[in-house]
Every structure is written in structure tokens, then in C-alpha cells.
Amino acid sequence: MNEVYEKLITCRESVMAKTDFCPEVALILGSGLGNLADEIQIVQTVDYSEIEGFPVSTVAGHKGRFVFGYMEEVPVVIMQGRVHYYEGYPMKDVVLPTRLMGMLGAKKLILTNAAGGINTTYQPGDFMLITDHITTAIPSPLIGENIEELGVRFPDMSEVYSVRMRGIIKEEAKKLSILLREGVYVQLTGPAYETPAEIRMCRSWGGDAVGMSTACEAMAARHMGMEVCGISCITNLAAGMASGKLDHKEVQETADRVAEQFKKLIRAIVRRL
Ligand code: HPA
After folding, report:
1. How much is the pLDDT for 59?
2. Fewer beta carbons within 10 angstroms: which end of the chain, N or C?
3. How far apart are CA 266 and CA 263, in angstroms?
4. What is 177-227 written as a DSSP string?
């Protein structure tokens, strides 16, 4: 059997030894949103460290566990703390949790992140519905022997972010009077923030926001046939667009400032997916 798939099966067994909960929707929470998982009706939590072979997150402020339970009566699994490529894991490990949530039964995936705004009309604190992504500058998580059990060798990526889900998200944002931008997310490896020249490059590619996560997860999820949507919180203007240096504190502060709004939007969406 494919080595990556074998590891996934082992991880699934580790989780299923703790819970037989079957989620419908999977969520991966970015900076500032992590505590949404503490606010659901929790049925079971599973620390990543309890799962055999699981990559464990190292970023301060990122918890490392799956939370199973009900959000707005919908059975969900939440990844509280994601795994980033810049931590040093190979891409196949970075997307392992996403695949695992799919293999535990989740058919739908909601991705969130903090991102730098490339589009000159964006302001820190804005939300951006991800319409598409660019992963050209990172290794594909699908490189290596294909996992036939999950999907095809050459998967179509012409609609990574579900048009159906995007319609629902736009409706719910409007109802909540939340301004929702729409744009293309560019994933780079990090961990350094970009140079101004790199941001100009991303803009010329057609990017509206830049970050260090999400698109690889979306790709792995689409490969295995999950329906995917994503929302970025624009925490800062990207490098070279504002005076001053970029730092993680600014990112965290903006994410925290708009977290309540963001959580409200996520809850409204989950109900309707
Ligand atoms: N660049 C990359 N990742 C980010 C940024 C940024 O400006 N802001 C939040 N995550």
C-alpha cells in the first residue's frame, strides 16, 4: 500500500480508538479564530500528540488538537492549530490532517487564515472570500506516488473553491452586514514575510492576498473530492505597501480585533452548508 495512505490509516485508527464521531464539516482555523473550537458543543477532543505519526504544530499560540462536536447543531471536526510547511514538515505531512478529516467522514471543508493584502483596495481587518488560489511557488502536496484510494493522478482544479458555498457565504455576510471582498490567495512558503518585489510579483500574477497556508490544504481536499471554501482575514497590508515593518504581533492584533465578527460569519455559514 502507498506509504502516505498507510500512515493515514494508522492515524484514523488512533482517532477512532478515542471517538466514533462522524463529522459532516471540517474546519481549519487560522490566527485569532482558534477559540471558536472552545465555543462549540464539544463531544471529544484528540490532541495531535496522541495520534501516531501526526505532525505536531510548533507555532506559539497555535493549539494542537482536533475538536469534535456540534456547531449550530452540525456535526463538525475542527483543527485547532494547523500544520505549516515552514515548520519543516514535507507537504504530504502538512496536508495529512486535512486528508484525515476527510477520511473521518467530513465531506465539506471550511478554511480560514490570516493574510497580507496585496489588492490596493483592501484594508487591515477586511475579510476576503477566496475565489481561487496560486500555488506555483510551493511544492504540490500531490507530488509523489498517487493515492488511488483518495483521488486521481491528474485532478481537475478549475473550481477549487465551491461556487455553491461561495454563494451561501456571500448571502450570510450580507445578512450580517459584513463587508466581504473576493479574491485570489497566493500561498508562499514563509516563514519570512515577503519582500516588496515579491509582492509586486504576486500582484502581477493576479493575487489579492498572500499567506503561508490554506491553498495546499484546499488542493489535497479537492483531490479527494471534498467541497471546499475559504475565507482570509486581511491582517495587514503586504510588504512595501505601508510604511513600517511587518511583524507577527500586528497580524495577531488585527486577527484578534475582528475575531468576533469572523466567528459570527463562520457559525452562520456552517448552518447552511
Ligand atoms: N504575508 C504572508 N503571510 C501573512 C501575512 C503577510 O503579509 N499576513 C498574515 N499572514
Report:
1. 55
2. N
3. 5
4. T--EEEEEEEE---SSPPPHHHHHHHHHHT-SEEESSSHHHHHHHHHTT-E
Q: Is 238 a pocket residue for ligand 1 (Cβ < 6 Å)? A: yes
Q: Please name the residue that has the C-alpha cell 455576510.
A: 173
- Relative to beta strand 227-237, strand 127-134 is antiparallel
Q: Which atom of ligand 1 is nearest to the CA of 236?
A: 8
Report, in angstroms and rounded to the nearest whole number, the Rg of the chain calculated over CA atoms.
Answer: 17
**pLDDT tens profile 161-196:** 999 999 999 999 999 999 999 999 999 999 999 999
**Dihedral class, residue 256 (left if φ above 0, else alpha if ψ from -120 to 50, else beta):** alpha
| pLDDT bracket for residue 34 (50, 70, 90) | confident
Residue type, 255: A
CB 182 within 8 A of CB 129: yes
Q: For the whole model, what pTM was predicted? A: 0.95
Q: Tell how far the Cα of 181 is from the centroid of ligand 1, in angstroms.
A: 17
- Show Cβ contacts of residue 161 under 8 Å, excluding neighbours closer than 6 positions: 129, 130, 131, 132, 133, 218, 228, 229, 230
User: Of the listed 5, 70, 86, 89, which one is catalytic?
Assistant: 86
Closest ligand 1 atom number to CA of residue 194: 1
